[in-house]
Design goal:
WD repeats lie at residues 30-61, 73-114. The chain is an alpha+beta fold and 197 residues long. The protein has helices at 117-132, 137-144, 150-175, 187-190; strands spanning 5-9, 15-19, 28-30, 37-42, 48-53, 58-62, 70-72, 80-85, 91-96, 101-105. The chain has 4 helices and 10 strands.
Length: 197
């Protein structure tokens, strides 16, 4: 939809969205994976994209959001090398190291097939209720919660600990050095090494 915007996968577990007209820093950093991101594919609408990673998960991100809205995994799935949205943006196809192709729903809770009028009304009512009460902390927690495999959950906690420790160390160095000698550099800018024309 916007040909000047693109997203790149990185082996530092993040994805970076850029505007081709301003490459000095990225527009957005998409976090969530705990291992190298191998593949990205935008949905036909351009409003979200799917990523596959070495951490054996598939995640769907909004194009302008920092964290994933959906995560897919199975016990037998190995490292994911390729992901694709179908042309109608209803399904996601993934290919992994265990030589299997898997088909996932783009919206996990969406009911597919023939839906009678009464069911449709019930779904619309539930969505309206969620939208009305989305500011409550309990509703936010339920909306954000995703079940993760134990290995990935532990890795996420470890990465948080490491990043917090590094941030504290940098703040202490900055506090005990000459003013202006250690300028802050955001994550959006720090990953850009060189621009080649």
């Amino acid at each position: 939809m916007e040909p000047m915007n693109f997203t790149s996968a990185n082996e530092d577990c993040n994805c970076y969205s850029y505007d081709a007209r301003k490459l000095k820093d990225s527009k957005n950093v998409h976090k969530g994976h705990v291992s190298a991101v191998m593949d990205i594919d935008y949905s036909p609408t351009g409003r979200e994209f799917v990523t596959g990673s070495y951490d054996r998960t598939i995640r769907i991100f909004p194009y302008n959001g920092g964290h994933n809205r959906e995560i897919y995994h199975t016990k037998r799935m190995q490292r994911v090398f390729c992901v694709k949205f179908t042309c109608d943006a209803t399904y996601v196809v993934s290919g992994s190291d265990d030589t299997n192709l898997r088909l996932w729903k783009a919206n996990a809770s969406e009911q597919l097939g023939v839906i009678v009028q009464r069911e449709r009304k019930k779904h619309e009512y539930n969505e309206a209720l969620k939208k009305k009460h989305q500011h409550f902390p309990e509703i936010k927690r339920i909306h954000r919660h995703r079940h993760l495999p134990k290995a990935i959950f532990k890795e996420v906690k470890l990465r948080h600990t490491i990043s917090n420790t590094a941030m504290k160390k940098e703040n202490r160095r900055r506090a005990h050095s000459a003013p202006g000698s250690m300028p802050k550099q955001s994550l959006r800018r720090s990953r850009i090494i060189k621009q080649v024309e």
